[in-house]
Amino acid sequence: xxxxxxxxxxxxxxxxxxxxxxxxxxxxxxxxxxxxxxxxxxxxxxxxxxxxxxxxxxxxxxxxxxxxxxxxxxxxxxxxxxxxxxxxxxxxxxxxxxxxxxxxxxxxxxxxxxxxxxxxxxxxxxxxxxxxxxxxxxxxxxxxxxxxxxxxxxxxxxxxxxxxxxxxxxxxxxxxxxxxxxxxxxxx
Length: 188
Fold this sequence. Notes:
Blueprint: H1 2-10, E1 28-35, E2 38-39, E3 45-46, E4 49-54, E5 57-61, E6 64-67, E7 71-75, H2 80-94, E8 102-107, H3 111-114, E9 123-127, H4 129-140, H5 144-156, H6 159-172, H7 176-187
Parallel strand pairs: 1-8, 8-9
Antiparallel strand pairs: 1-4, 2-3, 4-7, 5-6
């Protein structure tokens, strides 16, 4: 605890980096967002927002990847408009946005994340695969065949097949908990 306290007390948040002399030209950018529950010494739970911007991933070893040109933003933002304005400012200062064809905004679907669509030009929301997987596991349990079938359908963009598999899982659900998990997964 004391080591963490020292780090926190000595931490000075960095301002946005200086804009480069020449802006980068890319066709696609990725903005990923999430939040974390942090217990404060005041016995309250805090919810810092975390956003990172990157140009995709590159393989650095067998099955290992790193982000291309990542930039991280985060903090306690009671008004998330301020956070999204910081994201937009960074993008405007570092990229030729008129060259960017698509910005993929990835997250768990929380409203504060989707609000980023209002600020980021040519952006589309993409569901976070980690959270989607959590919902699928809760909904399908040990049904590995249905689990694999859904991932194949998702990779093909076959929403009809996904719905069919989930409806069948709901029909076969033996408990109210499982039925609710399937319903929550469909909604997600």
